[in-house]
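Weekly modeling sync, notes
Attendees: AB, CL, MP (scribe)

Item 1: holo prediction request
CL wants a bound-state model with iron/sulfur cluster before deciding which constructs to order. AB pointed out that an apo prediction alone won't tell us much about the pocket. Agreed to run with the ligand included and paste results into these notes for async review.

Input as submitted:
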Amino acid sequence: MLTSPKKIAIFGAGAIGRRVNALIKFNNMELKALYYCDNNTKLHGKIIDSLPVISAHSLSEIYQQNEIDFVLIAVSNSYLKEISEQLVEYKINNVFITPHYYLSKNTCGISKSNIMLKIEANKPRLKYFEFHICDHCNMNCTGCGHFSNISKEYYADVDAYAKDLFRLKELFWGVERIRLMGGEPLIHDKLNEFIDITGEVFPDSLICIATNGILLNKMPPNLFDAVRGKNARFDISLYPPMYNKKDDLEILLDIYEVSYKISISNRFIATHSLDPINNNTSSYENCKSSQCHFLRNGHLSNCGIPQLIKTYYDYFGLGSDTISICSENKYNIYEESNGWELNEKLSKPIPMCSHCNIPGRDFAWNNTSKEMSDWIA
Ligand code: SF4
Ligand code: SF4
C-alpha cells in the first residue's frame, strides 16, 4: 500500500541542508521537504531548490497549523545546540537532526534511519565533556594539565561510566563533543567498550580519543573497529619525542580507515596559584578551559581542575585544607533536576577559579623531575 510522504521543513538552507534534501530525493525516503528554514535573514523570501526559505518565526506558525509533520535540522554539529534550543522556544517538539558523520558520507544506500535521528526536543544539548579513561600516563610532561605524570594508577570502570552516561541522557538530548582521555587512554584494555557505549548513548556526538600516540601501533584491531564503527576520531597530540613518528602514524590510521587529527604540540601553560587570587570572575572570563566540562564519578565540573587538583596537593603533601575542594566546585548529576539548570550552573565561575592565574606562564615542552613549581604560574 502506498503511503503519502511525510511533509517536512529542513532547518538549514546552506550547503549541508541542500545536501540532505538531495539525499532525501535521491534515496526515495518517503519524505517531502516543503520549506527551508534559516536564521540568515538575507535568505528569507528566496527560493532554493524550488523551496521557499522562511524564518524560524514563520516555521513556528506553519508547524502549529500542521502544515508540516516535523523539522529536520541539517546544519553543522556545532550549531545543533543553539538551533534545537531555538525550536524549544517556538514550541516545535517534533524534531530530528542529521548526525554530523552522515554529512560527508557517500549518498548510495543511505537510509532514512541514517540521516534522521529523533531528539528529545524539550531538553537542551550539552556542549562538551571530557572523561578520564585512566589518570596515569606513559609520558612525563612538565606541568601536565591533568596531573597525569604524578597520578596514581587509576582505570575507569565501564559500567559506572555507562550509568553516568544514561543519567546525562535524562538531562540532555545530546552532547556536541565527548573527549575520552587521560592520562593516556590507550593504556586501558577496555577502551573499545568505552567508545561503544558512548556512541550508543550519544549517537549525535563527535567522540574524540585524546592520545599521545605512543601505543597506537600496538593496539588490537577491535579498538580501530570501535573508532570506525562509532564514527569517532583519534585526537593525537604529538610531543617532541614523537615528532618523527608522524608519517608512520598517518599510514597506520589510513590502513585502518579511521578519522584522526594530529596536532604538533610544544607549548604548555602553568596557571596554578597556591593562594587564592582576588577575582575568580576575571580568571573565569579569560579562561580557555571554562567550557571543558569534566565528568567523573557522577559529577560534572566546569573543567578538570576541581576534580583532579587533589592529586597535586596529595603528591606534594600540601594537605587537603590548603585548598577548598568543596562541593561548590562540581555538580552531582543525580541531584540535578534538569539539563537547563545544569547548563546554567556550568556557565558560571566557581570558587576554584580563584586559584587560576590566567593567562599563566607559557613554557616549552620538556621532561620533568616533578617539582611543585611545575604547575605554578
Ligand atoms: S602526554 Fe598528555 S596526559 Fe601524558 S603527561 Fe603529557 S600532557 Fe599529561
Ligand atoms: S578552575 Fe576556573 S579559571 Fe581555572 S581552569 Fe577551571 S574554569 Fe578555568
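Recorded for review: The chain has a mean pLDDT of 93.
Action items: CL to compare against the apo run; MP to circulate these notes.
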